[in-house]
Amino acid sequence: MLTLYEYGNSVCCQKVRLTMALKGLTWEGVEVNLFKSEQYDPQYLKLNPKGVVPTLVHAGRAITESSLICEYLDEMYPVPSLVPSDPYLKAKMRLWSKMVDEGLHEGISEISFSAMFREKMKLMTPEQRETRFKNIGDPKRYDRFKSTYELGAQSPFVIYAVVAYDKALKLLDQTLAGQGPWIMGDHMTLADINLMPYMARLHYLQLLTIWTDELACLKAWWAQVQNLPAFEQSVSQPMKDSEMEDMKHYGALIAPAIRAHIDKTRA
Question: Model's pTM, two decimal places?
């Protein structure tokens, strides 16, 4: 039995759900409500000491880190394969996962926080906010979130995020132009899956068109992603209507600032 400790609107959980859906796997979900700080529950921390989602439990053993979970699933359930068999191509695929894990993930957190989560925190009492910040634990992450809470889309961390996305999406467009329709060529791999939730978040925040209006191959890739039944099942459906509405509303409010950051970077 596969048990996934997850939250619906978590990009990392979406990656894992996509992988399981594309492989036709049966699994049980256990919600970890991030806004109720359930990720810091002592029992959950025994499974995932970092206090993040997702965590996959298989045969009584816990696997953490979404990119590693996806690779674990591909090895355990190799049909259909989502990883190239050629070692060189596998290494190239992992470079995309590395880009997501080491830059784009942090970036989408800052962009999302500046848009909607910041507004939710404004409604908290000072005591609730301070508790929320204390629970972060990691000093670097604390500094990022504190800056984004105070400065919104003008936080330097949001600007860094926008620059990272601008560079990555132009590279993605160039890669697809050279070999498409998927990142590694004819077949979808974990390189595509690892990027899908991040593009979806930009889309729901009304920000993705800033890039797709200019990058034709990226636009075509995104269109085929949206047509995947697994995408609807794993990304769109698990989210609440209120979350969709919040992303649409608050994302549109920061869109001019995001566009300005891009224009300034390219000037």
Answer: 0.94
Domain 2-76 CATH superfamily: Glutaredoxin (3.40.30.10)
Instruction: Give the Cα separation of 37 and 54 in Å (integer).
Output: 14
pLDDT in tens, 54-80: 999 999 999 999 999 999 999 999 999
Secondary-structure class of domain 87-266 per CATH: mainly alpha
Q: Where are the domains of the chain?
A: 2-76, 87-266
Same fold, 2-76 and 87-266: no
**Exposure string (b/e) for 156-182, b if CB count within 10 Å is 16 or more?**
ebbbbbbbbbbebbeebbebbeeebeb
Give exposure, 195-216, as e/b (b: 16+ Cβ within 10 Å).
bbbbbbbbbbbbbbebbbeebe
